[in-house]
User: Fold this.
Amino acid sequence: MLMGMGGNTGISVGEDGVFMIDDQFAPLAPKIKNAIAKISDKPIRYMINTHWHYDHTGGNEGLGKDGVVIVAHDNVRKRMSKDGFIKAFNKKVPASPSVALPVITFNDSVNFHFNGIKIEVEHRRNAHTDGDSIVFFKSANIIHMGDTFFNGIYPFIDASSEGSIDGMIDTANYVLTVADDKTKIIPGHGPLGDKKSLKAFRDMLVTVKARMQKLMDEGKSLDAIVALKPNADFDETWGQAFLNPETFLKILNSAMP
Assistant:
């Protein structure tokens, strides 16, 4: 697990080469390559994007030019192929150059047989986005969840990319059924996690969703909900990263069913 300014990168190394998960922001590409070179002198063979956001795909162009095979869910290539827009941050995202696009895409799942192990990749529908993938290294008891898991911090749920609070909760519940007390869980953002920290994340999501639903059912406006600070008991712990409590409430509101 490599941590930097963008989403957490995962790598698997062995005789066949390097298998990589996410590549953060474009300017970090040289640093990431140098960090990997200190771990393995083998080439990077495959890189999978857990979703389309630029803090996870920024290094694609450089890796593509190096001949690395880029893999992702069908919707990741679709979104990267055209100009995008992230409504929550009012941010336009230009289309990626063709060399940065995934060259292999899949619908539900794909397996890699690499470095003597089986690496299983599964798509999770409408969680953080509409193109999320989770990567399972079952023989090593390690799971990379991408941005379907933010460890210890409020998550960004990209409703403009068909993400939803229900999908985030469903995904957390799914991983909790397959993880055990020794499973290492790599989040998209935050420190290395485990089943306990994922459960805390899931429980927080369930609670804030219920609170938001109650206030919406009462007919309260978003401004009124923000003013009420309904998650004050969580804010000190979860609201100290890039999403402050007010921004998270607005994002949660957009991601409600």
Summary: The chain has a mean pLDDT of 97. The first helix runs from residue 29 to 39. Residues 164 and 255 are 5 Å apart (CA to CA).
